[in-house]
């Protein structure tokens, strides 16, 4: 029996009607534990004992592709022990880098004078002897 997987699909949809059709098409597959749909990102998250290829085939009408595929439960991560001296040094280096970036940005803006003007657009039209294209010989 395959392990439970989490599949995140990216879809091309436009409205709630497409969402309803997608959920109806996918809910018929066996082995699905949960479905979640994000309209903002156009992503469908499926958790269960399913084959990602079968899901993609069901959703090919909506230009679906697999965004991420992995285990349903994320493994527990152990936090590494932090040493006080190293953290302070890292923070100090990061702060120095941020200050250097700010100085570079200020120098760039001052050298330009921030007097940038909008770009001018130039339209050139071809002039023909007979603009209608009709020639009588």
Topology, please?
Elements: E1 5-10, H1 16-27, E2 32-38, E3 43-48, H2 52-58, E4 65-71, H3 84-112
Structural description of this entry:
It is a single chain. The chain is an alpha+beta fold and 137 residues long. It has a domain at 5-71: Alpha-Beta Plaits (2-Layer Sandwich), CATH 3.30.70. The protein is built from three helices and four strands; from the N terminus they run βαββαβα. It has a four-stranded antiparallel sheet, covered by helices on one side. The longest helix has 29 residues, at 84-112. 7% of the residues are buried. InterPro entries: HIPP, HMA_dom, HMA_dom_sf. GO terms for molecular function: metal ion binding. Its main location: membrane. Keywords: Lipoprotein, Metal-binding, Methylation, Prenylation.
Outline, from the CA principal axes? flat
What level of helicity do the residues show?
25-40%
Q: Return Rg in Å.
A: 29 Å
Separate helix tally: 3
Q: What class would the helix/strand composition place it in?
A: alpha+beta
Helix/strand order: EHEEHEH
Strand order of the largest sheet: 2-3-1-4
Low-confidence segments: none
Determine the CATH topology of the domain at 5-71.
Alpha-Beta Plaits
What's the CATH class label of the domain at 5-71?
A: Alpha Beta
Described by strand count, sense and barrel closure, the largest sheet is:
4 strands, antiparallel
**Terminus-to-terminus distance:** 83 Å
Membrane topology: Peripheral membrane protein
Organism: Helianthus annuus (Common sunflower)
Region (Disordered): 70-96
Domain HMA: 4-70
